[in-house]
Amino acid sequence: MTISRAHAVLEEACAAVGLDAVGARLVRVAENETWSLPGRVIVRIAQAGQQAATVREVEVAHWLADHGLPAVRALKIDQPVDIDGHPVTFWEELAEHETGSVKDVVTLIKQLHTLPIPDLKLGVLDPFVRVSDRIKAASSLPENDRVWLQRHLDDLQERWKRRPKGLPECVVHGDAWVGNAVRTAAGPVLLDFERVSVGPPEWDLVSTAVKLTTTGSVSRTEYADLCTTYGTDVTQWEGYELLADARELRMASYAALHAASRPQWQQEAQYRVDCLRGRAAPRPWHWKGIL
User: Fold this and answer.
1) pLDDT tens track, the chain, 291 positions
2) pTM confidence score
3) Is 15 left (phi over 0), alpha (psi -120 to 50) or beta?
4) Do 108 and 196 form a contact (C-beta atoms < 8 A)?
5) Which homologous superfamily does the CATH classification assign to the domain defined by 3-93?
6) CATH assignment of 102-276, given 1.10.286.20, 3.40.309.10, 3.40.50.970, 3.90.1200.10?
7) Which of 187, 195, 207, 259 is 20 to 30 A from 178, alpha carbon to alpha carbon?
C-alpha cells in the first residue's frame, strides 16, 4: 500500500469512529502501518485479510487490562474498522518510553503465562503463520532458495506435530522479543498482540534465546538473567532445536519478504538464507536488523 493510499484509509477509519486525522504522523511501516494522531491516539492499519487477527488483538488488550497486566490499551470503541478489507485499530499512545530490555520482556511474559486461559477465540499457536506467503513473495531470492525454504518449512511443520512435551500450555504472546516491550517511567509495558494464542510457553522464551545462540545479539549475562527471572533455561529443553529452527526461518522469511521491495535489505535477506542453508560460518551469525 502506498503512503497516500494508507493516509486515505486512515482518514476514512478515523471518520468512522469520530476521530480527526488532521495532523496524523506516520510512525512505522512494517507488516502493519502505524500512525499517531495529535490527540495521543495510535492507529494501526493491518494487511487485508487480517480481520480475525485484529479482532482477537483488541479483545486480548481488553482482557489484559482487566487483569492489570502492564500492556498497551485499546480504545474502548467499536473496533476494528474495516476499510476496503484493511482492519484498522485504535490505541492509547504510550507515555514517553524507550525500548525494553531482555529482563523487561521476560518479566512481562512470566506474568502473562500465569493468567488463566480466557474464554476468547485465541486459537492454537501456529509458529509458521504467513511464512509460506513470505517465501512466495520473496522475489529477490533465487528460485532454488525459495524452493529450499518451502521444503524446510514443510519439514519443520512435520517436526512440530511430533514436538516433545514441555511446560504446561498457556496463553502465549507469540512474538516476545524486545521490540514488543517498552519501558516507561512506570515500568515495562507489553505491545503487539497479533500472535497471542494458546501454546507452549517455550515459544515465547525461544524468541530471546535465539538472540544468544543464533545471532549473538544477547549476551550470556543478559540471557542468564532471563533464566533466573523466568525460572528455566529453554536452551536445555529437548525441543529447543526445533523451536529455534522455526524462529530462524521466521526471521529469514521476514527479511526476504521486505527485501523484495527494498533493495537495501536484499544482501541481509540473502545472507540469512545462506546461513540456514549452511553456506556461512557456524552460529552465531550476527544478523543485522531491518525496519
Assistant:
1) 788 889 999 999 999 999 999 999 999 887 789 999 999 999 999 989 889 989 999 999 999 999 999 999 999 999 999 999 999 999 999 999 999 999 999 999 999 999 999 999 999 999 999 999 999 999 999 999 999 999 999 999 999 999 999 999 999 999 999 999 999 999 999 999 999 999 999 999 999 999 999 999 999 999 999 999 999 999 999 999 999 999 999 999 999 999 999 999 999 999 999 999 999 999 999 999 886
2) 0.92
3) alpha
4) no
5) Phosphorylase Kinase; domain 1 (3.30.200.20)
6) 3.90.1200.10
7) 259
